[in-house]
Amino acid sequence: MQDSQLLQIAQDFGSPVYVYDAERIATQYNRLTAAFKDVNQLKVNYAVKALSNISVLKLMKQLGAGLDTVSIQEVQLGLAAGFNAESIIFTPNGVSLEEIETVAKLGCQINIDNLSILEQFGTKHPKTPVCIRINPHVMAGGNTNISVGHIDSKFGISIHQIPHILRIVENTKMNINGIHMHTGSDILDIDVFLYASEILFETAKHFKNLEFIDFGSGFKVPYKAGDIETNIEELGEKLSTRFNQFCKEYGKPLTLAFEPGKFLVSEAGQFLVNVNVVKQTTSTVFAQVDSGFNHLIRPMLYGSQHDIRNLSNPEGRERFYSVVGYICETDTFANNRRISEINEGDILAFSNAGAYCYSMASNYNSRYRPAEVLVYNGEAHLIRQRETFEDILKNQVEIDFKPKKVKSTTKQNITL
Ligand SMILES: *Cc1c(COP(=O)(O)O)cnc(C)c1O
């Protein structure tokens, strides 16, 4: 996607608008599958929560992906997009037994991450194949918001509880067909990943009827200059070799599964906003845009740094700006950012706006959620309309407040 095309999209569809590049998504998908071409069978389940637009899901289906889902609504979205239930894995956390049973009945692969549900589900449905989510207690990254494999994490069943898992499996005679881990969204180096994988292999040996081992995700993509990117090619080479070797030891060819979100869609997304006001203060120059953390919360929630370009004045002299939003809350997108000179009415583009951006958007300040556009074969397709005032009022129930009726105490009202 050229910046000139992005500018045209902002003109045609208005701002703020999320724009996704289908080609970029395909490139990432193909990179991942190419890196693991040597394994017996690879399954890439796209993590729906990263970007859940139905057209994006359909694109994933066309590429050959399955889906990783965390709620029954994501499962329903996947089914609506045309996925078979068998190509959907359900990896929820802390959801009710009923929700898991409903999804299992639909035919999706169930992934259970706590002993209580494992025991209840296994007792009631011993024949339904179940995958178990293990917490290998590997600290990937260092930010406890996004490192879910460590000891205090709420995710997965601790590897120290394997004896307990085995007792439940034996008592219920349930069918464990997969082992899973997802160590968080910030695996910094391949060695950490391989280390966690060894724990998963050790665990896998306890189960005789496995069909797949799911290594989750956590692939890192660069957000700003100097950021580390997971070297997928190197990981592919090393993990494939080790995986094939494990399958030999195990005595059966297994499927290697991943469930990337960010890796597939982050860099494919751009968020376009309009500059409403340029405001000089005693200490800085604010560029105030027609958005806020209601549309893009990552910078405030995680401290994420999204690169920002001025599409309207790419050759302008670079100056320092604080880019902030228009909602009544501190909503700083960027501090002291060097951007080519900004004028009111300019269109700015935020990079890496594919993953966890639109899907985390809200109506805070009663603002509309933005439109979404997918560029496919060079053409811009609207894949979600901007909300309207009807959307804001939808589901709200108005009460008719009438003046309180005063009860009469006089006897005149009583008819005998
Ligand atoms: C969120 C999530 C993913 C995707 O993580 P990314 O960092 O976006 O690749 C994968 N698996 C599970 C279980 C998740 O919750």
From TrEMBL:
Keywords: Amino-acid biosynthesis, Decarboxylase, Lyase, Lysine biosynthesis, Pyridoxal phosphate. Its EC number is 4.1.1.20. Residues 18-354 form the Orn/DAP/Arg decarboxylase 2 C-terminal domain. GO terms for biological process: lysine biosynthetic process via diaminopimelate. InterPro entries: Ala_racemase/Decarboxylase_C, DAP_deCOOHase_LysA, De-COase2_C, De-COase2_N, De-COase2_pyr-phos_BS, Orn/DAP/Arg_de-COase, PLP-binding_barrel. Its cofactor is pyridoxal 5'-phosphate. Substrate binds at R298, Y302, E329, Y356. GO terms for molecular function: diaminopimelate decarboxylase activity; pyridoxal phosphate binding. The active site is at C328. Residues 25-266 form the Orn/DAP/Arg decarboxylase 2 N-terminal domain. It catalyses: meso-2,6-diaminopimelate + H(+) = L-lysine + CO2. Homodimer. This is Diaminopimelate decarboxylase.
